């Protein structure tokens, strides 16, 4: 199965470089490129890709608003691009429905892997970057607090805490001394009960609810 991708970045060299890398893979096809958020949304509507590789800072419409529209209107998965040191909006992008993010200096193999992971319906959590982001944004007063965690069982709450730490299913299974199949069931129950689309939103919910604490 070929993964169809739209690459959106206002820097032509960056956009072209990513497109060339991805298009060179036997299972990935770049169906369109976009130079701003408006073009990105239009390209997704016209080409119905599986993944939108989307820069955060772009003219006319930024990546956050573009991600919000794409995630609300289509089944396309959004993978954000950021320089991190200057971008203050990654957390908002994840809230908008993005399935993960990459630094612009990402290695070739990691870029290809990330697109495949997101296309398969999973989320991409880079633990080192995620920890720094969560710490920064959750140190600020939250606009809203996620409630309703009482619907989770004790084991499901524990699973959510471990997801927030960036652990894989195998690592969670080892920590909880259960099978990986049991962990998958717990993860599925957490997402279903809290109305979350993937592990990225689960991480956000854990920190916003106070279940997970930066630096803990």
From TrEMBL:
HTH luxR-type domain: which residues? Answer: 145-210
The UniProt record lists the keyword Disulfide bond? no
Molecular-function GO term, any one: DNA binding
What organism does the record attribute this protein to?
Answer: Nonomuraea longispora
Q: Which SUPFAM superfamilies match?
A: C-terminal effector domain of the bipartite response regulators, CheY-like
Q: Which residues form the Response regulatory domain?
A: 4-119
**CDD domains, per the entry:** LuxR_C_like, REC_NarL-like
Q: Check the record and name the PANTHER family matching this protein.
A: TRANSCRIPTIONAL REGULATORY PROTEIN NARL-RELATED, TWO-COMPONENT RESPONSE REGULATOR
| Keyword tags | DNA-binding, Phosphoprotein, Transcription, Transcription regulation
Keyword Phosphoprotein listed? The answer is yes
- What's any GO biological process attached to this entry? regulation of DNA-templated transcription
What protein am I looking at?
A: Response regulator transcription factor
Q: Which residues carry this modification: 4-aspartylphosphate?
A: 55
């Amino acid at each position: 199965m070929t993964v169809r991708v739209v690459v959106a970045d206002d820097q032509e060299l960056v956009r072209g470089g990513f497109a060339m890398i991805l298009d060179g893979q036997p299972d990935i096809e770049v169906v369109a490129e976009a130079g701003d958020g408006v073009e990105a949304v239009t390209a997704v509507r016209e080409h119905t890709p599986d993944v939108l590789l989307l820069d955060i800072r772009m003219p006319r419409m930024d990546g956050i608003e573009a991600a919000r529209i794409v995630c609300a209107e289509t089944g396309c998965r959004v993978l954000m691009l950021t320089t991190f040191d200057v971008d203050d909006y990654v957390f908002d992008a994840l809230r908008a429905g993005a399935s993960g993010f990459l630094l612009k200096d990402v290695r070739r193999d990691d870029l290809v892997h990330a697109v495949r992971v997101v296309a398969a319906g999973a989320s991409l959590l880079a633990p080192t970057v995620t920890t720094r982001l969560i710490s920064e944004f959750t140190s600020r007063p939250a606009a809203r607090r996620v409630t309703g965690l009482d619907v989770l069982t004790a084991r499901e709450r524990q699973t959510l805490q471990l997801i927030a730490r960036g652990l894989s299913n195998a690592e969670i299974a080892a920590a909880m001394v259960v099978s990986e199949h049991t962990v998958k069931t717990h993860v599925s129950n957490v997402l279903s009960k809290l109305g979350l689309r993937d592990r990225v939103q689960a991480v956000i919910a854990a920190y916003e609810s106070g279940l997970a604490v930066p630096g803990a």
